[in-house]
Specification:
globular, Jelly Rolls, ten-stranded antiparallel sheet, disordered N terminus, eight-stranded antiparallel sheet, 2 domains, single chain, 289 residues, mainly beta
């Protein structure tokens, strides 16, 4: 079949085929289920609704450290977050965390222990997490979207807050130490949203979008990468639920041939984020036009 068509006898699924690379399987509502690339590798579409999880509490959050032991909040130690819907994400404490992620009514609570300069990073598509990395300039267009709520209790909420793609490598304690990355950032204290990029291990470049996050309000950040590695950004600050480009953006192209993974990262400042809850996490290939 050429292009995206209505389901015909496929139990509500649509099959799309592009002879240049692969097959895609879509659910009836347009959500990609998985892609089979030209080499026969299955590339799952990760779509997690944490707010829809019915198991709640720290003991049921599914956080397991390497070796199968209970999750730990020691910095630089890998943990696997097993979601109720079957997907697996990686979670690591930045510095340390005495309070681990847990499922609450609103979603996945990752605010942690409310200590200045402590934080965490949640990431996927590597090290045993669901999915495989995306290769800029090689893979077809891909994206990452997160819906979250952040509440600041003081004048300085975060030292770091990033949502986007970074190079496929071990979690780094310092955001600026990543070698390649593109993200939407946010200073939760004053709501300032900016674009943050790192290319070829150079200094982090920040571009103010002119947009402001409203604290304690659920909003979405989305980062998209086209087939050539060019990055664009979207959020729904103006109208919740309606994604649009920032008021001011920045043109950047990820280094081709390098693998990238989706990530969500923050570091507490002195004012502290008292609530940071992820409702939705979605990552995969963009649907063909």
């Amino acid at each position: 079949m050429a292009g995206k068509e209505e389901p015909t006898g496929l139990n509500g699924l649509t099959v799309s085929y592009d002879s240049t690379y692969d097959h895609q399987i879509f659910s009836k509502n347009g959500k990609e289920v998985f892609r089979v690339d030209a080499k026969g590798v299955i590339r799952p579409h990760v779509n997690i609704n944490f707010a829809g999880h019915t198991i709640t509490g720290v003991s049921d959050s599914g956080l397991v450290a390497t070796g199968g032991v209970a999750g730990v909040g020691t910095g630089d130690l890998l943990n696997f977050l097993h979601c109720q819907s079957g997907e697996v994400l990686c979670w690591e404490a930045v510095v340390t965390q005495t309070i681990l992620p847990d499922i609450v009514a609103a979603g996945l609570d990752v605010a942690g222990d409310q200590t200045a300069d402590d934080g965490m990073e949640l990431y996927g598509n590597m090290l045993g997490a669901t999915g495989v990395p995306f290769v800029a300039g090689v893979d077809p267009p891909f994206f990452f979207r997160v819906k979250f709520t952040a509440t600041d209790a003081g004048t300085n909420g975060t030292d770091d807050f990033q949502v986007g793609f970074r190079q496929n490598e071990l979690c780094r304690p310092a955001w600026d130490d990543y070698r390649n990355a593109a993200a939407l950032g946010c200073t939760v204290a004053d709501g300032t949203i900016d674009i943050q990029t790192i290319l070829a291990n150079a200094a982090t470049v920040e571009t103010a979008t002119g947009d402001t996050y409203v604290t304690a309000t659920a909003h979405q950040f989305k980062v998209l990468v086209d087939a050539a590695g060019a990055v664009t950004y979207q959020h729904d600050i103006a109208t919740p639920g309606v994604l649009a480009a920032p008021t001011t953006t920045a043109a950047v192209t990820l280094t081709n041939g390098i693998a990238y993974v989706p990530f969500f990262r923050f570091l507490q400042d002195t004012g502290l984020i008292t609530d940071l809850t992820i409702q939705e996490w979605e990552c995969g290939f963009q649907a063909p036009a």
